[in-house]
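Just scan my protein:

. . .
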Amino acid sequence: MNTASTSSILIASAALVAALGAAPACADSITVIADCDNTLIQPSPSELSLGLSHQIYVGRTGSNADQTIRRGLIRFPTAQIPIGSTVTSVQVNLYMSKGKGGAVTVALKRCLASWGEGLSFAFGGGGAPPEPNDATWTKRFWPSTSWTTPGGDFVPAASATRIVNPEGWYAFGSSAGLVADVQGWVNATETNFGWVVTGNETTPGTAKRFESHDTSAIPWKPTMTVVFTPPPPCVAADLNCNGTVDGDDLGTLLGQWGACAGCDADFNGDGVVDGDDLGALLGAWSS
């Protein structure tokens, strides 16, 4: 091997070593508004929903609504958090705009199945006839897809709780439960079904009203703030970014062999994937 080739390999290898020794990623954070919400309304006797309502309701109503139960549904998007990130803090902020019956405990419980927000609308918590794809007490998607258990499928243990009473903002978390929930959704976005929001379901007249993402009062929209550490950048020779430099990466390099300006395997940036780049990859090979 001539001196020029040896020098090229050393330069490319030095770049890989620099990448391996890069400083760890710093913590980052995002705040997102809920992208879907609804209210599950215990039938009395008809199925009802509040897909496009400006509020969601939780707890047991008074005699004017037959003392039936309300459960909120709420979901926040997590796709903006890079896969491989480590979630360290989660806080959910809900604005309670009306409530009766004094202080009650409100809980967020991880939902176990997908559900819908249709076009049903009503002023107040009485509900309206469900529209296609609305969530109701018995249906995840009206009129044909049912919950396994009427009233929603969710983990019984609360991920976070908060005692609420006067009108105003309430922060839920950060808690180990919320962090675990969001970490799971970051790892597998398709499992993000949000939370079921429950209140006092025993005492009549204790239902609470929270503003939804459809509210016209923009400052009151529900939000979630997540603090996370992004995954470290990939080593240059780890072409599929799976944490190892191995035969898969070698196959990618050979597939780009030859003149290939801008290719991932052109480690030394000379516009050609050749022996110099192969030597650099082999120098970074995972043990």
User: Anything to note?
Assistant: Confidence is low (pLDDT under 50) at residues 9-23.
